[in-house]
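Contributing new complexes? Match this layout with magnesium ion.
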Amino acid sequence: MSTTDIWKKSLEIIKGQIPSQHFTTWFKPIQVAAINETSLELEVPNRFFLEWQRDHYLPLIQETIKKVSLREYSIVWRIGKMAVQRASATISPSAAQTVAVERVLTNTTLNPYYTFENFVVGKDNQLAHAACLAVANQFSNKYNPLFVYGGVGLGKTHLLQAVGHRVLQRINSTKICYYTSEGFMNEFIGAMQRGKMDDFRNKFRRTDLLLIDDVQFWAGGKGRTQEEFFHTFNALYEANKQIVITSDKYPKDLDGLEERLRSRFEMGLIVDIQPPDMETKVAILQKKAALDSIVLPDDVTHFLASLGSSNIRELEGYLAKIIAVSSLSGKEITLPMVKEALKNIIKDHTAKSLTVDKVQKAVASFFNINTADIKSKRRLQNIVVPRQMAMYLAREYCKASFPEIGAAFGNKDHSTVIHAVNKVRRLVEKDTEQRKIIASIKNLLDKSR
Ligand code: ADP
Ligand code: MG
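Output block (do not edit by hand):
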């Protein structure tokens, strides 16, 4: 089979495996830029497209090609001529790999886009950003390890890799090691099976900077991996090497993590990333668009930011889709065009969004009070706080205006709602306990969707 046939045949198989709309959006625009015995280079319209492909379809593409050709290809994407007026940069993951091959140990490629320059700082992530930047600019005993935690798609991997990029730029001789916790485990198991534990240990222990992504993966088992990492950690720590770790949870909340590892994680500085607010989301969307030399109309940016997702990867997905549609159809990006392009997503989203009533019930049951009290005018402290929290959550979860929320809370004035929302927002920022309460209720609400 000729090499181009391999791609054609793979596409046919992929087409049968994913919804046709996804196929049209994410596979039709791809062109094969080059293919040889070992690698397949795909040309895609823009950066967002590239990232979406990589995050969602890489395993599918690799598996399919392997099935068709009976061999492994490495996949390289490049941003193509199709969008040349928009994307001037060419990303070739393999280039990043070869530049740094001797200084970077990694189970995956460092994404050339994940730099501090491309990271938008908002109040939700400023502490994490500042801490990562500080460590990248100067390794620090005080901040060792630096432990960054936060929800999915909020920028942990981006920041972690930004530290890597900055250190590589700054010191010519440093060796850095970026591993996902899963990659670390796989390599550890492989080394054990091949009887190459010494090589494994030496490799990790000769780095100056250890970046480990997503350690929550180890919680709940993976005992020997945790043990091995514990020793790696100690060896590096004692040698004053910098360690940065990310996780989706605070160390204490990582059930199944060994106690001694947990206490190591708590030795340095722990910082969190909170879900982005409207302003941060808008700023990120503008930045992403600008990187593709696209100016988004304000109404479009606000519309996207208001779609309710706090997962930035998801926002990028919307943007990718819009840009893809625009560059394929030649249509200008306008609000009606965007609404049309995202029709299905919006439908899903509204189906998923909650009613104020549901929010009130969830909050009432969490605090063990009556829903009627939440809507009443009673001023008891044990009712006022839950009421304000319910207003805050209603604002976040329901597509309702301040007056609408006021009406749903026993005809309260919209200024009362604004006051409550601001008050709870400040509370959540300052007070860990309150933040935890809100997070627990959000958890309940997310499950009930
Ligand atoms: P996590 O590792 O927390 O799940 P990622 O670091 O993978 O999240 O981020 C998801 C996507 O959102 C990435 O493409 C990243 O570049 C982008 N992103 C997240 N936060 C920001 C930010 N503050 N500025 C710019 N891009 C961001
Ligand atoms: Mg990540």
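Reviewers usually confirm one structural detail per submission. For this one: The first helix runs from residue 3 to 17.
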